[in-house]
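User: Can you help me understand a structure? I only have the sequence.
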Amino acid sequence: MEFGIQIFATDRTLQPVELARAVEERGFESLWLPEHSHIPTSRKTPWGGRPGAPPLPEKYWRCHDIFVSLAAAAAVTDRLKLCTGVTLVPQRDPIWLAKEVASLDVISQGRVILGVGYGWNREEMEHHGVDPSRRRALFREKILLMKALWTQEEASFDGELLHLEPSWAWPKPVQAPHPPIVLGAGLGPTSLAHIVELCDGWMPNRKRDLEVSVERILEALADAGRDPGSFEFTYYGASPDPEFISELELLGFRRVVFRVESDPPEQVLATLDDLARFVDSL
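Assistant: Let's start by predicting it. Here is the structure, written out as tokens:
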């Protein structure tokens, strides 16, 4: 099993260059950065879209751009996998996003994992011109359009929502056919369909019904003619709980990503030290 670190890389915590060095030096496999372009101050949508949620932490509107941060991380590391955890695909221009992902994969010599999600903040989406009720359909077409740009010499796409006339776009990713795409979302009918059609992995962040969910995904992959053995499960935002990690390993999870708070730099380093010692003790 591999272990990674997830943190909101903000202007008030350990900066991306020092963060990436520290994570790699302590033997972690991957660094996962979340993103939000901004947070509208109306705060109409509760945290995570869940009624009764606590106030949204400040780190959500202070985070750096993830691709700028991961490019900086790529320049000062050799082995660390560089991961979006997650990028909000419906809010992003897919042509630019495809180029950012491919460029980062080339610069890092094939170390990118593309964690993707639908988003939950309705006002944030609307500011990007996205109808929240259509974000899942838009997500699907943007992923398909990006795959065309990554894999076709002369790329084109025709969907219900998006169209790309025949176009040239380089660089192509180092990883073939493209970096792994990992969906970070709950397992409903639409997300299951997207996992089977579009994704190379699933990344839950809640413990409820994990065994059932894994079984559903493996069965759906097999029914679609895909090899379940080539699909990866990652648990996102874990705490250092040896019993739970053992359960994840039995369920076939390949990776556990620990959540680290966006604390002052010295506290982040101390937390990374604690987590490294925990991993060594397993």
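Now, to help you interpret it: Residues 115 and 182 are 5 Å apart (CA to CA). Strands lie at 2-6, 30-33, 81-88, 112-117, 155-158, 163-167, 181-183, 201-202, 232-238, 255-259. Let me know which part you'd like to focus on.
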